[in-house]
Amino acid sequence: MSWRYRCGACRTISTHDHQHQADSERYDHIATVHRGRIPEDDEVRPLTEEELAHSRPAWRPPYPADRPPQQQKPNQPFALALLVVLLLVGWGLYSLLPID
Predict the structure, then answer these.
(1) Domain that holds residue 17
(2) Less CB within 10 Å around the terminal CB: N or C of the chain?
(3) What is the pLDDT of residues 13-62, one digit of tens each?
């Protein structure tokens, strides 16, 4: 059975497979968006057969679940090269300090 959380104030709707997931979404939404204040007309309820027939499929990640996304970000090599250059410059400046 699918469950739906609906916030009456901001009109957001989320669909979940289990009631505890919808309840968790409700508490997280209230805490983050409404700063702990419970909005009017928010509800967690089971979906009817008619709503299930017309509902959109659940969001899926853009990559297959058995294959993680590409681990290396495009800017990682640049950041590593910048770090090396800064370390070398710092080492060079440190070597210029007078030693007592």
Answers:
(1) 1-58
(2) C
(3) 888 888 899 899 899 999 989 888 888 888 999 988 887 777 665 555 55
* Cα 97 from Cα 47, distance rounded (Å): 72
In this structure, is residue 48 part of a structural domain?
A: yes
Sign of torsion over alpha carbons 25, 31, 34, 36: positive
Q: What is the per-residue pLDDT across 1-27, written as a single tens digit (0 to 9) for each?
A: 788 888 988 888 888 888 899 899 899
Amino acid 42 reads D
Flag whether 41 is in a domain.
yes
Tokens of 54: 């017309």
Number of domains into which the chain is organized: 1
